[in-house]
């Protein structure tokens, strides 16, 4: 299984509130400044037609370790997965728990043309 993995943030980021007012005045307006996000981790194998994914509240090394465990469970017994990754900090961390049936291959830095997942 050779695949690509990606993590994308989906969330809410509120805009600045605007309102009509007399020139030279700045009325106070309440504005919801909360933000909420979730992260989608996904990996695909085009050849086998398999995919593995998780929706998690954080994007960090622990979340990536969970994602790798999910991918490892989808790999056929006796097979080995090779994942192409960008150089995000959580992809290359020494604390990352990489299952024995997965090999991580980092892409060169600043090469989005080699990672079509980045263009989606």
Biggest sheet details = 5 strands, mixed
The level 1 CATH classification is Alpha Beta
DSSP summary, beta strand count: 5
CATH fold node name: Nucleotidyltransferase, domain 5
Relevant CATH superfamily: Ribonuclease H-like superfamily/Ribonuclease H
Principal-axis shape equals elongated
Q: Give the radius of gyration.
A: 20 Å
Class of secondary structure makeup: alpha/beta
The end-to-end distance, rounded to whole angstroms, is: 22 Å
Q: Kindly give the count of domains.
A: 1
Architecture overview:
With 120 residues, this protein is of the alpha/beta class. The protein has one domain: 2-Layer Sandwich (Nucleotidyltransferase, domain 5). It has helices at residues 61-74, 89-92, and strands spanning 2-12, 36-45, 50-56, 81-85, 102-106. It is elongated. 15% of the residues are buried.
Question: Secondary structure elements and their pairing?
Answer:
Layout: E1 2-12, E2 36-45, E3 50-56, H1 61-74, E4 81-85, H2 89-92, E5 102-106
Parallel strand pairs: 1-4, 4-5
Antiparallel strand pairs: 1-2, 2-3
Q: Descriptors for this entry?
A:
120 residues; alpha/beta; Nucleotidyltransferase, domain 5; five-stranded mixed sheet
Produce a short descriptive summary:
With 120 residues, the protein is of the alpha/beta class. The protein is built from 2 helices and 5 strands; from the N terminus they run βββαβαβ.
């Amino acid at each position: 299984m050779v695949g690509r993995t990606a993590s994308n943030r989906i969330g809410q980021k509120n805009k600045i509130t605007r309102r009509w007012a007399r020139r030279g005045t700045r009325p106070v307006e309440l504005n919801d400044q909360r933000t909420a996000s979730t992260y989608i981790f996904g990996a695909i194998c085009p050849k086998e037609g398999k995919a593995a994914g998780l929706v998690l509240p954080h994007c960090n090394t622990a979340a990536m370790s969970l994602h790798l465990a999910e991918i490892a469970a989808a790999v056929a017994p006796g097979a080995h997965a090779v994942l192409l990754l960008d150089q995000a900090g959580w992809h290359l961390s020494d604390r990352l728990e990489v299952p024995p049936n997965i090999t991580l291959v980092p892409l060169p830095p600043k090469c989005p043309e080699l990672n079509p997942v980045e263009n989606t």
